Amino acid sequence: MYSKNVWKTYSNDELEKVMSFAEGYKKFITQGKTERECVRLAVKEAEENGYKNLDECSTLKVGDKVYATNKGKNFAAFVIGSEGIEQGLRVLGAHIDSPRLDIKQNPLYEKNEFALLDTHYYGGIKKYQWVTIPLALYGVVCKKDGTVVNISIGDNEGDPVVGISDLLIHLAGDQMQKNAARVIEGEDLDLTIGSQVIKDGDKETVKGNILNLLKEKYGIEEEDFLSAEIEVVPAGPARDYGLDRSMVAGYGHDDRVCAYSSFQALLSAGECKYTTCAVLVDKEEVGSIGATGAQSKWFENVIAELLDKTGSYNDLKLRRALSNTKMLSSDVSAGFDPLYAGVNEAKNSAYLGRGICFNKYTGSRGKSGCNDCMPEYFAEVRRVMDEGDIHFQTSELGRVDQGGGGTIAYILGNYNMNVVDAGIAVLNMHAPMEIISKADLYEAYKAYTAFLKNI
Ligand code: MN
Ligand code: MN
Questions:
Q1: Distance, C-alpha 273 to centroid of its chain
Q2: Which one of 48, 121, 141, 296 has the fewest beta carbons within 10 angstroms of its own beta carbon?
Q3: Distance CA 100, CA 255 (A)
């Protein structure tokens, strides 16, 4: 096999870099539990590094560093290269949405002296993994007067957490006969948020107490849930995993691990020949659709702005810029799990600790829905990886006919860009606690940096 375990190749100096890079990442996913939070963190770090808001720049020149956001859920940062935009960009693209539960529009109800919130899950989850764990709430409540109330409950010191109950094993005789898809049903993923009864006129109510709390603390009424977007995510910080601290356990590695390493690579690559970009998109877990998904016209519009502000916009130049662009679609790969080895084909699996993972194609069954990267392009990528002494592996998603999945690669491929999937192997993908290797995180960061500089 071409790939090998990278841990044994590190000097002490490199080991220190691997471990310290992971510290920054742990902080990022601990604070970045939703796409909005990730954008907020990215904007802050971009500004600290001298990036300017594209909207506030009337002209751009070589070496300028700018960022753009879209509806609080997309982020793109650029460093203008010495070649014109028309010659194409070097793009790292990752998604910052992760599987979770969303609060419904009419969520709040009381039953048997509990107050509960109804949810609707987002993305592909094993529903039984989301019960009996501490959960946090993040999001916004948008009021009719135009004000937006930010919600963040469960991760700040002293905060309460919420959660979803499950039946005690003693009485689970019937439940245990159900198959795993049905053992916890979507409609039963309701969040317990209170149990204290108060006297409200001549009624005794738990819901009334919760509504009073919401009014006092956030100034919101029950009706304001109609225009709210509140996401339910695992509470608690990302942590070292394993006695040797070689891995990170956390929520949302898919795909914030690639988002973080891509953005850090952009920050560290500096000015390059071609204009460089890290773009973070939303809605990948539900098909990349809508205004904030990769299929949105937003990214194309931002490239048009770049052309305009460098003084050379026209439609043909925009098309050429997109078509000449080379991209890594940075998304996670399914890490080989020795407990479930049978779903993989060993030679073409992604292993934790063997470096960044490239997928020529993803898709299901007969590669359905995949972006099948041009081998000519991958040869170029492979050369740059080898020249940069970067550890990489190649894989596909499981055995043929076992399942499958997709990424944003094909969507940017539609512009005629050269795109290849490149990311980090994850164990427990889409579970509330996912696992990555710190070595892979560091190799991905090095790989993304080399790509921006040398492709
Ligand atoms: Mn993903
Ligand atoms: Mn995913």
A1: 28
A2: 48
A3: 13
